[in-house]
Structure to design on (473 residues):
């Protein structure tokens, strides 16, 4: 039960640290930079990031498929997309380096991460779609909400 | 005797306990199990928040108009700053935790103790900050009026600045008395009185020509709709019902009741996890100081507790994004 070796490279091997302590401080600086960017964007809210870049496609089956595949760029504000992407980057580095997932076996990594991601994606997808549906019902039809 | 008998354990076979699945110890594996299940619980909460928010997407309060306070800076609008400070503190405490784990691998007892102590301090600062945020949120800011339909009306002046109801409400004699136990029925309680009654606020609003009403509904730019003076006067006379100051689980002055409900529920659950993490860290800190892990020749307990602490940080990263940023 001696301590296993640490993997000292991050960013797919492009940045290799000299010791584990240095890697920890390096990741901390990286996470702080990302947090500062997120907070700055959240306070300033630049106008260029507040309207979706692509509008929804009209048409039949292929248009609907395109809408689904490019949903993140059609239905989301780019500002929110940036926030979510940066959050996932932060989560990756916290899990991989602070929780030492980088040093665990591949099987354990996959067990933890794939389970969570698969279930999360499914749950979030159905709840957001349903929420939007109910919003449309109350907006466009003659029903007064009572809950 | 044992060396001459060939068992699966001595041969390194699987069923005799001869190997460690996934090369992780039992304790670490169980901690990962717990983390996955707790992560799914929090995702359920956040997904429910997303569902409710999408249901009322045209009326949801804007976070950087609600969370604008910083301790010791009265009247200074500081949107998002305190929450950013809290995020930074939690990330920093995660860093000191991982440094403690690293020192534990090298069996350096005093270094582990120092870093764990810093982690505990960081966690305590975070819990205190969250409590301060709750107190500020509950106390309220400018105050608002609730309509008969349960919607919130806020007040602006003609330049677009928010106006506190206390600054224009007229004071009137009132016959309403707050029920006390000396003159009430023991099992019933009256509603809490607000600082100003609705009649006082309405009279002050009608008397002051510079005031406008802002509804909670967002226009095409994503800003709450500001009514003209005529529409504001009509609105408060026709639809206004009562004054709301601050927030509780039934109503809040920022917008839809679900906004306050989810804020309390999710940040409360997360704060409880941080608090329990701080307690567990204190216990492990004492064990480090008295040398339990030196005797055991392994600091793996510090690593397991570190996993829990990083999980708490991870949840906060997501809560911070979906509550305050998006």
């Amino acid at each position: 039960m001696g301590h296993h070796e640490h993997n000292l490279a991050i960013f797919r091997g492009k940045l290799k640290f000299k010791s584990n302590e240095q890697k920890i401080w390096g990741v901390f600086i990286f996470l702080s930079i990302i947090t500062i960017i997120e907070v700055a964007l959240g306070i300033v809210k630049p106008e260029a990031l507040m309207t979706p870049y692509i509008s929804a496609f009209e048409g039949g089956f292929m248009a609907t498929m395109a809408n689904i595949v490019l949903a993140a760029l059609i239905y989301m504000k780019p500002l929110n997309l940036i926030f979510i992407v940066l959050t996932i980057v932060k989560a990756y580095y916290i899990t991989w380096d602070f929780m030492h997932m980088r040093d665990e076996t591949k099987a354990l990594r996959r067990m933890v991460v794939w389970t969570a991601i698969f279930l999360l994606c499914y749950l979030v997808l159905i709840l957001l779609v349903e929420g939007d549906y109910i919003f449309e019902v109350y907006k466009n039809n003659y029903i007064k909400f009572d809950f | 005797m044992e060396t001459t008998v060939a068992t699966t354990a001595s041969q390194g076979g699987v069923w005799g306990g001869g190997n460690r699945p996934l090369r992780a110890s039992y304790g670490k594996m169980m901690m990962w199990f717990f983390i996955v299940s707790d992560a799914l619980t929090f995702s359920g909460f956040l997904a429910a928040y997303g569902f409710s928010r999408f249901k009322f997407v045209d009326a949801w309060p804007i976070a950087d108009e609600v969370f604008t306070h910083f301790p010791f800076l009265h009247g200074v609008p500081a949107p998002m700053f305190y929450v950013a400070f809290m995020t930074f503190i939690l990330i920093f405490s995660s860093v000191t935790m991982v440094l403690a784990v690293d020192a534990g691998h090298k069996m350096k007892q005093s270094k582990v103790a120092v870093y764990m102590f810093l982690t505990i301090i960081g966690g305590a600062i975070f819990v205190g900050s969250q409590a301060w945020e709750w107190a500020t949120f509950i106390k309220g800011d400018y105050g608002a009026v609730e309509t008969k339909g349960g919607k919130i009306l806020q007040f602006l002046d003609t330049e677009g600045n928010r106006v506190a109801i206390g600054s224009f409400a007229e004071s009137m004699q009132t016959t309403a008395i707050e029920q006390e136990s000396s003159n009430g029925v023991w099992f019933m309680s009256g509603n809490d009185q607000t600082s100003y009654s609705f009649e006082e606020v309405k009279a002050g609003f009608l008397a002051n020509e510079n005031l406008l009403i802002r509804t909670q509904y967002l226009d095409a730019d994503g800003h709450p709709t500001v009514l003209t003076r005529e529409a504001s006067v009509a609105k408060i006379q026709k639809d206004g019902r009562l004054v709301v100051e601050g927030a509780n689980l039934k109503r809040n002055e920022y917008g839809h009741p679900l906004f306050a409900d989810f804020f309390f529920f999710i940040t409360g659950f997360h704060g409880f996890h941080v608090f329990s993490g701080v307690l567990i860290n204190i216990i492990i800190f004492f064990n480090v100081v008295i040398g339990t892990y030196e005797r055991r020749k392994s600091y793996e307990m510090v690593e397991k507790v570190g996993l829990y602490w990083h999980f708490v940080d991870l949840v906060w990263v997501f809560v911070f994004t979906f509550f305050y940023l998006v």
In short: Chain B has a mean pLDDT of 87. Residues 29-140+259-325 of chain B form a domain with the Four Helix Bundle (Hemerythrin (Met), subunit A) fold (CATH 1.20.120.80). The longest strand of chain B covers residues 211-218. Strands of chain B lie at 144-147, 152-157, 211-218, 224-226, 240-244.
